[in-house]
Amino acid sequence: MAKKFFHERKPHNGMTYEKYLEKTKRHIEKGNQLTLSGKEKKFLEYTKLNYHRSMRIQKKYVINEGLKSVVKKIDTPQLWMVLTEKWCGDSAQSLPIIAKIAEVSPNIDLRILLRDENLDIMNHYLTNGKSISIPKLVAFDLEGKELFTWGPRPDEAQQLVSMWKSNGLHPDIYHEKLHGWYANDKGRKIEEEILEIISKMVR
Q1: How far is C-alpha 151 from the chain's CA centre?
Q2: Which helix H or strand E contains 148, and what residues bound it?
Q3: Bridge partners of residue 113, in order along the sequence
Q4: Contact indicator for 134, 152 with CB cutoff of 8 Å
Q5: Is the separation of the CB atoms in 77 and 109 below 8 Å?
Q6: Strands 136-140 and 78-84
Q7: Could you report the average pLDDT of every consecutive run of 10 residues in the chain (203 residues)?
């Protein structure tokens, strides 16, 4: 049975990827003109940095031909909902790739929802049953049946973060290491994981 938020069409009314980028850019421009608190300045700097990361990836990333071929086999409409926030570093690394993948099929409608404005939805997709980690990709058919979920990061990256945390690394240090991992990986693990998921659906 479809969840209540799907019947209320909250995912359907989410932003397109293009609108999400426009909203992020406007937020940065507006923030530059305001007097902000220390915390607000910190999150604005995160947003600026991650916006530029997203733009760089969007320009350079080319989808793997094997993945492209499988995505083109999707023959029924799907709604891909991504829960995220504009300051999120993991989202900056993965959302441009998810958007490029979604572009391959006319049957995929990608919609972006801000997590903090949709905690009622986020609470259905907690990581390890407790963490509101983002980004979170959830795919639905037209009736609201969940087809798959992915996120908040590739499994290999998730394992590294867990190890760094258990070793007591400061967040600033392991976040830097994580972005180094993303830079070296160039989206390959995200592709592999989504390819595996979609291959099972289009058999």
Answers
A1: 7
A2: strand 146-150
A3: 83
A4: yes
A5: yes
A6: antiparallel
A7: 94 98 95 81 94 96 95 97 97 98 98 98 95 97 97 97 95 95 96 96 84
